[in-house]
Amino acid sequence: MEGVKLVEKVVIVPEMPTNRRRIFLSNLDLPLVAYQESVSFYDPPENKISFSESYNTLYRALRSLLVPYDFFAGRLVPALEDNSRLEIDCNGAGIVVAAARTDSRLSQLGGLFAPKPDLKHLVAFLREEGEDEMEFKDKPLLYIQLTQFGCGSLALASRYNHCVLDGAAARDFEKNLAAFTRGDDLVIVPNPDRTIFKARNPPRISHPHHEYSRPSEIRDNLFSVGGKRCTNVMHSRTSHNTTHLIHIPPQRIASLKMAALKDGNLKKCTTFHAIAAKVWKARSIATKIHDEVCSTMLFPVDVRRIVVPPVPIGFAGNALVPGFARASVRELKDKEDSYIVRKVQEGVERFDDEYVRSGIDWLEVHRGRPCNENSFSLVAWFRLGLEEDVFSWGKLKYATPVVLKPGLVFLLPGLEGDGGLNICLDLPDDQVDEFHRLLME
């Protein structure tokens, strides 16, 4: 992919003054003070609008959207009541948006359904010089880059602080943004009030929480707030592995589900249950974890409808809580498929209102983060439904994360109409070969 050249870079603020307020960040938000990057691709606009029209339409849409999403235009600051925590100051400081061009054609990128190094060009103008040394109060919470390819296709990349939104809320934001570029009204009214996820006073931890690690078990995980050091922020590590993509055809998915149901011990088995169980087993063995070691697979569980009362429609925050499946590597090697799938199912079924509240209280007491000992996280990207979004310049073609962070495995959609899935993971070549063999056996 040839060099991407900047057309212009601007700060977008709400089109009208918004009320100055502070937004509480819950214990589900605070472990996620880190930036996420993703990119969506679009064919050349059928209505033949110019690139200038496209990015100016984007600017106008964002100015309007930042009125209901005033918190995205704010900044992270120490909380007024407890300066060891962070909260959002809705100060209208704005977001950063870049327009860029490249002579490369979209087809030169090859497959668009998985992270790859070339995608970093599409977020090239979304980082500040000396950013690592900047204080949170000086960093925008959202950066966007719209890039036009030589063939006329477009890429819309976003870089946002994960503490503001989870994947479901980010999907709502993108739907609203698409609507505003078309000149339509809000599809979903955002509600950023996270007080429903406040810890109880005093905290009551009623369950063991193997999905989390204590601060003493977390390395390189410190940040400074108001002169104090805290241990509840995720930092990505540098990976020297290679991102690999493994396609699972629909026939293989069907056979995995049949194998799990064969002995009659399970009443049902979804695609996610079957794939998750197989990925967990294959990765645990391929990474050569000792047989007696306990392997933990994490996967996000949306608790919007689980907590009591349910989270309001349009909730704009983090309500995806790590579920887990946990077993020794020996069990994963020796037990039948139905046993491993059942472990995955239990990871979802253990969630009720009290379990969620207990986990929030655990985080209040221990200030930890998702388990990082002999563990990995499986994210079902194919469930987001982003392919339904239609912007003024056209319908979304593909969407993918820009990079795969260590310890993550993505389940991505397969080719259009294929019905299969792609597994994206970051392991050394020899381990991936073993993973692939185990996945297909």
Automatic annotation (TrEMBL):
Q: Which domain of life is it from?
A: Eukaryota
GO MF terms listed in the record are: acyltransferase activity, transferring groups other than amino-acyl groups
| Family, per entry | Belongs to the plant acyltransferase family.
Q: Which PANTHER family match?
A: OMEGA-HYDROXYPALMITATE O-FERULOYL TRANSFERASE-LIKE ISOFORM X1, TRICHOTHECENE 3-O-ACETYLTRANSFERASE
* Protein name per Swiss-Prot or TrEMBL: HXXXD-type acyl-transferase family protein
Q: What is the lineage of its organism?
A: Eukaryota, Viridiplantae, Streptophyta, Embryophyta, Tracheophyta
